[in-house]
Structures are given as C-alpha cells and as structure tokens.
Automatic annotation (TrEMBL):
Protein name according to UniProt: HIT domain-containing protein
PANTHER family: ADENOSINE 5'-MONOPHOSPHORAMIDASE HNT1 (PTHR46648:SF1), HIT FAMILY PROTEIN 1 (PTHR46648)
InterPro entries the UniProt entry points to: HINT, Histidine_triad_CS, Histidine_triad_HIT, HIT-like, HIT-like_sf
Motif Histidine triad motif per UniProt: ranges: 109-113
Gene3D superfamilies linked to this entry: HIT-like
Residues forming the catalytic site: H111 (tele-amp-histidine intermediate)
Pfam families documented for this protein: HIT (PF01230)
Residue stretches making up the HIT domain: 16-126
GO annotation, biological process: nucleotide metabolic process
GO MF annotations, alphabetized: catalytic activity
UniProt signal peptide: none
Length: 151
C-alpha cells in the first residue's frame, strides 16, 4: 500500500473520537495524515500516552479489513519512534488495543494506546495471570485446531 492511502471516512455522530477527528472537540494532536490521527490521551497513564485512531469510524479490531489494518498499523512505529525521540527518558512502550467492554474498551471507536515507559515503577501496570498449569498438550492442540479452522 502506498503512503498517503486515503480511505473513505465514515463517522458516527455520537462518537467522541469522530468529533475529535472533525475538530468539534479539541485535542492535543501529535500526528495526523489523511487516514490516521494521533493525540495525547487525557488520562496520561504516563507522560506522552498517545492514542492512535483511524479517521473512519470502526468500533473495534473485528471491523477492520486488511487494507484498513495495513494503513493504521503502518503508522504506529512512526508515531512510537517520534514519542521515543521526544524524550530520552523513554526506555520502552506498551502498545495496547482493547476490544469490547469486557476487554476494558471505553470508547467504541477503535484506538491504540501508545504508553511510554520510563521505569518499572512508573505507575503503569499490565498484569496477566499465568494459567499454563491448567492446559495440557491435548487442550492446547484442540485450541490451535479450532483457530486454524477459521482461516
């Protein structure tokens, strides 16, 4: 896909991110092109916490097609590198995408959180429970085959 690919924009009149895209609500924009907008998250989980959104309304990752995914995902490294270059104290970054209420999605316009990391003690935590003892080879093979069958 060529740089600057322009997708047809669709908006949801009730969506806060669509309103930000259209300039109806102000934002602290750090990057914008024809297809993507990146702006500071007002929560600032850590300094520089940025949201990356497509400029067309899609509720979550399940609504992406391969073209939209290529367009949006290709901008994330560029924005992440700009964040890192803006502050030499950044030593890592969490890139998070929540899909559905149960997965902590609070705005139903797909978005990616770029959360700069400064230390092990910078007030941002992601905790995953290790359930490996609950799965044997048979269960893992069954899960693998269920997923593979969908391609």
């Amino acid at each position: 896909m060529k740089e600057g690919y322009f997708m047809e924009h669709k908006y949801d009149e009730d969506c806060i991110f669509c309103k930000i895209i259209k300039g109806e609500i102000p934002s602290y924009t750090v990057y914008e092109d024809d297809d993507v907008k990146a702006f500071l998250d007002i929560s600032q989980g850590t300094p520089g916490h940025t949201l990356v959104i497509p400029k067309t309304h899609v509720p979550d990752i399940f609504a992406y097609d391969s073209e939209l995914a290529a367009t949006v995902f290709s901008k994330i490294p560029k924005i992440a590198n700009a964040l890192k270059a803006s502050n030499p104290a950044i030593i890592g970054m969490n890139i998070v995408n929540n899909n559905g209420k149960v997965a902590y999605q609070s705005v139903f316009h797909s978005h990616f959180h770029l959360v700069p990391r400064y230390s092990d003690h910078d007030d941002f935590k992601m905790i995953f429970k290790d359930n490996s003892a609950q799965y044997d080879e048979e269960q893992l093979t069954k899960l693998t085959n269920q997923i593979k069958a969908q391609f």
